[in-house]
Specification:
The protein is built from eight helices and five strands. With 200 residues, it is of the alpha/beta class. It has a single domain, classed as Rossmann fold (3-Layer(aba) Sandwich), CATH 3.40.50.360. A hairpin with a 2-residue loop joins strand 1 and strand 2. Helix 1 crosses helix 6 and helix 2 packs across helix 4. It comes from Gulosibacter molinativorax.
């Protein structure tokens, strides 16, 4: 609901400037099996590849999660762990979380912001958090409007496209050892078992 309110405010801001948004929604609950399998096996499914492509092409992202045990949900964190590490370079992002109590308000600027810093996203200054008591508070509406305007200004500037066209080679795109894993034989019995298949 928080993401939808933000999307609607962003769309209105764009409309006021003569632009029209095209919105794609990625429901992580629909990707539960793929996220679980991906975290265990390191392999991605066609559904995850499609979601990755959607995010990589986006001019801006609204990333929202409920809070579970003082952290972003496992689905949310797992999805972004599986995301191509280059997909969000320079992409403007609003970070959002909801919880039953205001005691979890720092989840967004704590664990979530650091995860998106690792992904080299451009997180807008205003993060959004809503506890149960916030939904009827006009202050939440004002924060949504402020964050939406921040996202719109970054999207409108075409910062991401300029950055990627002029500075892409300046980023590290490979991590880990010299052995990238490209030479791993996924057809061995052991690898089939590791990825959830069966070995005969």
């Amino acid at each position: 609901m928080l993401a939808e309110k933000t999307r609607d405010c962003l769309a209105q801001t764009a409309l006021e400037e003569g632009a029209e948004l095209r919105v794609s929604v990625i429901e992580l609950r629909d990707l539960r099996p793929e996220i679980g399998n991906g975290l265990v096996s390191g392999l991605t499914s066609p559904e995850l590849e499609k979601a990755n492509e959607t995010i990589a092409k986006a001019d801006g992202v609204i990333a929202a999660t409920p809070v579970f045990k003082a952290e972003a949900s496992a689905l949310f964190s797992g999805f972004f762990q599986l995301l191509d590490r280059d997909a969000l370079i320079g992409t403007p992002v609003i970070l959002e979380a909801t919880a039953g109590t205001a005691r979890h308000a720092l989840v967004v600027d704590g664990s979530m912001r650091s995860q998106f810093a690792y992904l080299r996203a451009l997180v807008v200054p205003t993060s959004l958090f809503a506890a149960s008591e916030d939904w009827n508070d006009p202050a939440l509406t004002r924060r949504i409007r402020r964050a939406s305007r921040e996202l719109w200004l970054l999207m409108k500037s075409r910062f991401t496209r300029e950055l990627r066209s002029k500075n892409w080679e300046g980023y590290q795109h490979d991590y880990g050892s010299a052995n990238s894993g490209d030479d791993i034989d996924l057809n061995t019995d052991l690898m089939k078992l590791a990825t959830g298949g069966s070995a005969i």
